[in-house]
Amino acid sequence: MLLPPEDAKLFFKLMWSLQYHVNRKLGFYKEISSREEYTNLPTEKKLKARNALWEHPELIEGYARENPDAFPDAELEIVRRWAGSIKGSFFILRHLKKGSIFIKDERVYAAHGIQDPLDEVIPSYALPQMVEAVLLPFKGQIIYDGLLQGYSIHFGGGIRSNLNHDYTVAKQKGRIITTLEPDTAPQASPKSKPKKDIAPQLEELAEAMAKVKGNDSLQNSALALARAGIELALAVATNSDLAPAARKARKAFTRLYNMLEIMEDE
């Protein structure tokens, strides 16, 4: 998901103005005498002011207070809110229509591209990807400051599993962070669907399965797994303690799996 073209233009106007102010204050490139000149610098030369800005966020308030570019209050307020940026290492897990999923310290963010879609900047086939980034508030949404520094690191199944777990938990609990400005865009609470009571059906299944007898040990093992699965589902449906039912289901599965392996070896 991208910013509208007019918002992308506004973002870069404000960002380059702010970085030019930092460059002027700290004297990185004294020969640069206008925002236009600074805008035309290559990215590698902009890094000095950019990095100094996020290391010293107090420069943001100084810029807003001086207002050297005579920006209106609404635009200065956008800049002021950048003091609430989040800087550091993130995992980009996936790209969705509502934003790309960034994860840092088990917190899950949905961020948008500015001019280029994030799935073109870092394609989906390269995910998950670890990046250094700065996430910013912008008109109730989350964007990044225009620069992502990636790492060529291969992630094993354990890290992928943990990231997917963090995302799934955040999604189910309505904790995906879509704004860094809760006063301007309150977090929407997830729509909860009324739960259908399936406990009576599961109890009927359990009663019926108790009467079914297998013809051999393999069938009996499969039936034991089916009964354990129904028992586990019933524990979930009735908000009962899941651990005993889960252990019973795992034991039944292991028994059936081992039996199948023995049969294959014969």
SSE inventory with pairings:
Elements: H1 5-26, H2 35-39, H3 43-55, H4 58-66, H5 73-81, E1 86-96, E2 99-104, E3 107-111, H6 118-121, E4 129-138, E5 141-144, E6 149-150, H7 157-172, H8 199-210, H9 217-237, H10 242-265
Antiparallel strand pairs: 1-2, 1-4, 2-3, 4-5, 4-6
Helix pairs in contact: 1-3, 8-9, 9-10
Level-1 CATH class name of the largest domain: Mainly Beta
Distance, first to last CA: 56 Å
Please give the largest β-sheet. 6 strands, antiparallel
Helix segment count? 10
Percent helix, as a range, is 40-55%
Order of helices and strands: HHHHHEEEHEEEHHHH
Poorly predicted segments: none
Residue share in β-strands: 5-15%
Secondary structure category: alpha+beta
Shape: elongated
Can you put this structure into words, describing what you see?
The protein has 266 residues and is α+β, with helices and mostly antiparallel strands. The chain folds into three domains: 79 residues, no CATH class; 88 residues, OB fold (Dihydrolipoamide Acetyltransferase, E2P); 62 residues. The protein contains ten helices and six strands, in the order αααααβββαβββαααα. Strands 1, 2, 3, 4, 5 and 6 form a six-stranded antiparallel beta sheet that branches. β1 and β2 form a beta hairpin. The model has no long low-confidence stretch (mean pLDDT 92).
A few lines on this structure:
By secondary structure, the chain is α+β, with helices and mostly antiparallel strands. It has helices at residues 5-26, 35-39, 43-55, 58-66, 73-81, 118-121, 157-172, 199-210, 217-237, 242-265, and strands spanning 86-96, 99-104, 107-111, 129-138, 141-144, 149-150.
